[in-house]
Write a structure and sequence with these properties.
The radius of gyration is 27 Å and the shape is globular. It is 53% helix and 1% strand. By secondary structure, the chain is mainly α. It holds the Pfam family AA_permease_2.
Length: 639
């Protein structure tokens, strides 16, 4: 393996025990928790803000189609996320997937884009939360002192509500409070009830005439709203940027993608999920499908109640729509639902931001002390660092004007994840994939094209800001991450004790020679053509000659060792392997008998224990005989 900035993280290493107990997360999520996690972040900003805003300013009633377009693209991307999450179930999400598929520099680029997405999302939604909270106080006629009125519900500058909600949620996460998951459940259920009331009441006032014209005539776009596609078409054809019309339908879709940010964040919870390779894809796809249905239902109810010409983008649009049809009491209910909904969005975004920063620091691309675990068994340092950055950004930057920056960071990650499916299908077809993208080449290419189209419909100004952010990120990597990378340090490390590779003049009887293509990055031979020494340290990924590669890349817990060869490929249990170690007559984790589920005692002369061995007490899922699912929270994550 070349030790440069294109070095790849082996799948077996990404899912193994390299990081040790100080850098491992505890299991807290099940499938239903993942669905709630996804709904907690996806249902909120889009339903209570973006849907009405895009209908009033960009697409008109055809915003319904824009939601379907954005949802379709996100569903395609979710399939790619689901497959890679089943292969690499770790906290880094698209960052870790890119590290495995493309190499370190590309992983850093994707991770830096994710930091932009999540950091801005937390800041933007905190500001939106403050606006809705201040509106709720006014709607309920709660008296607000004059000194307080000037520092709450502000679009820019210091805002006490935005500051307070961020500090509260950061403190909950940094101290490992179990209230966070229970509170998430309560708030998600409450806002689902509110959405049900919104849809039912909105359909009561539905009038088909409000959908006409479904695609309003195109009109010139306001200054500063030109997209990259507009600029390209203007340079080629001389046309002016427009909103509404057919182009408006597509132009609204990228901003609406902001609403669906959430299914990709579920991947950051993989290390904290029992049986993650199967449950994460299930929770991801289920929550996205539910969110798309709810968004379309609310959009139909809203644009069917009032004409989009009567909506004021400067006001909370859903509550305004109900006020225009005489259902003023719904406005107060929506205020409560919006505050709860946006609270869950901030909570989940902060969780995901923390996990991405934690993963990058754990790999050494950010200062590694950030990845330390606190006495609360959570990455408190990463939480405080990432959360502190969100607080500073929310108070010092006019973040409400940068919403599309969140979208471009998300779509950029979508591109790499979809391409990662193709790369790993080509380079590692042997990997065990509990979830597989149907018609992978076609689906992945379609996702890349659709995502690229959405990115072209973002503003030129957004691309400019994004370029500046990414250039700054690459500079940070070249100055710091490239030198401090854990992969670099481990590849540079000499063999333990400085021992040279043992000479093997001939392979053992019945074992084929190890060819270069199978030997991997540490291949090498003695002058006599012998076998290479096993790679040093915790990066040992070598295999016995003439034995198929394991089906599963999960070196610990349930997804640990590959299926033993049987039949004509079965190895003699009494012969020695190419590295001179005597094969035991009995599997160290064989079932039955004394010491069941405990590793065989290791001879000190044989070196340190295998860092990728099964956890004590965990059965081999690929052994013969019946296999039972471990009780929650069991499996590879049980601590």
């Amino acid at each position: 393996m070349r030790n440069n900035m294109f070095r790849r993280l082996p799948v077996e290493q990404a899912t193994g025990r390299l990081y040790g107990g100080r850098h491992r997360l505890r299991v807290v999520y099940r499938t239903r928790d993942l669905i709630v996690l996804g709904l907690g972040v996806m249902i909120g900003s889009g339903i209570f803000k973006i849907s009405g805003e895009q209908a009033a300013t960009t697409a008109g009633p055809s915003v319904i189609v824009s939601f379907l377009i954005a949802g379709g693209v996100c569903l395609l991307a979710a399939l790619s996320y689901a497959e890679l999450s089943s292969i690499v179930p770790v906290a880094g999400s698209a960052y870790s997937f890119s590290y495995v598929a493309f190499g370190e520099i590309w992983a850093w680029v994707v991770g830096w884009a994710l930091v932009l997405e999540l950091l801005l999302a937390a800041s933007v939604v905190a500001r939106a939360w403050s606006l809705y909270a201040a509106q709720a106080l006014a709607d309920f006629a709660v008296p607000v002192p004059s000194w307080l009125a000037g520092i709450i519900g502000q679009e820019k500058g210091f805002d006490l509500f935005a500051f307070g909600i961020l500090v509260l949620l950061i403190t909950m996460l940094a101290t490992g409070s179990r209230m966070s998951l229970r509170s998430l459940w309560f708030m998600v259920m409450a806002k689902l009830i509110v959405i049900g009331l919104v849809v039912a009441t909105g359909l009561k006032f539905f009038h088909a005439g409000n959908l006409t014209p479904f695609v309003p005539p195109a009109r010139p776009a306001p200054d500063g709203a030109a997209t990259v596609l507009d600029a390209v078409l203007g340079a080629v054809t001389g046309s002016k940027p427009e909103v509404f019309g057919i182009w408006g339908v597509f132009a609204a879709a990228p901003a609406i993608a902001f609403a669906y940010i959430g299914f990709d964040l579920i991947a950051t919870a993989s290390e904290e999920t029992d049986d993650a390779p199967r449950k994460v894809p299930r929770g991801m796809l289920t929550s996205l499908a539910i969110a798309v249905v709810l968004y379309v239902a609310v959009a139909v109810a809203m644009v069917g109640m009032v004409s989009t010409d009567r909506l004021d983008p400067a006001k909370p649009l859903l509550a305004t729509a109900f006020g225009l049809v005489g259902a003023d009491s719904m406005g107060e209910i929506i205020d409560i639902g919006a505050v709860l909904a946006l609270t869950t969005v901030i909570l989940v975004v902060l969780i995901s931001l923390t996990r991405v920063v934690f993963s990058m620091a754990r790999d050494g691309l950010l200062p590694r002390p950030i990845a330390g675990m606190s006495r609360f068994r959570v990455p408190s340092r990463a939480t405080l660092v990432a959360g502190g950055a969100a607080v500073v950004m929310s108070q010092s930057v006019n973040v409400l004007t940068l919403e599309q920056m969140v979208v471009i960071g998300t779509l950029f990650a979508f591109l790499f994840v979809s391409a990662g499916v193709l790369a790993l299908r080509r380079d590692r077809p042997d990997l065990h994939r509990p979830f597989r993208v149907p018609a992978a080449p076609v689906t992945a290419v379609a996702t890349i094209l659709a995502t690229g189209w959405l990115m072209l419909n973002l503003k030129v100004q957004t691309w400019g800001y994004f370029t500046v952010w990414m250039v700054a990120g690459i500079a940070i990597y070249l100055v710091y991450g490239r030198r401090k990378s854990q992969m670099k340090l481990l590849l540079d490390a000499p063999p333990p004790g400085g021992r040279a590779a043992a000479r093997r003049d001939a392979p053992p009887p019945g074992v084929a020679p190890l060819d270069a293509s199978f030997a991997g990055p540490f291949a090498g031979s003695s002058p006599g053509g012998g076998f290479p020494a096993p790679p040093p340290g915790p990066y040992r990924t070598g295999s016995r000659p003439n034995v198929p590669a394991p089906e599963s890349p999960y070196p610990t817990g349930r997804y640990s060792v590959g299926r033993r060869p049987i039949g004509q490929n079965a190895a003699d249990p009494h012969q020695r392997d190419p590295y001179g170690r005597e094969r035991p007559e009995r599997e160290p984790y064989a079932r039955g008998g004394p010491g069941q589920g405990r590793p065989a005692r290791e001879d000190a002369a044989d070196g340190p224990a295998d860092p990728y061995a099964l956890d004590p007490g965990v059965p081999d899922p690929f052994a013969s005989g019946p296999h039972e699912e471990p009780p929650y929270p069991g499996g590879r994550h049980r601590r």
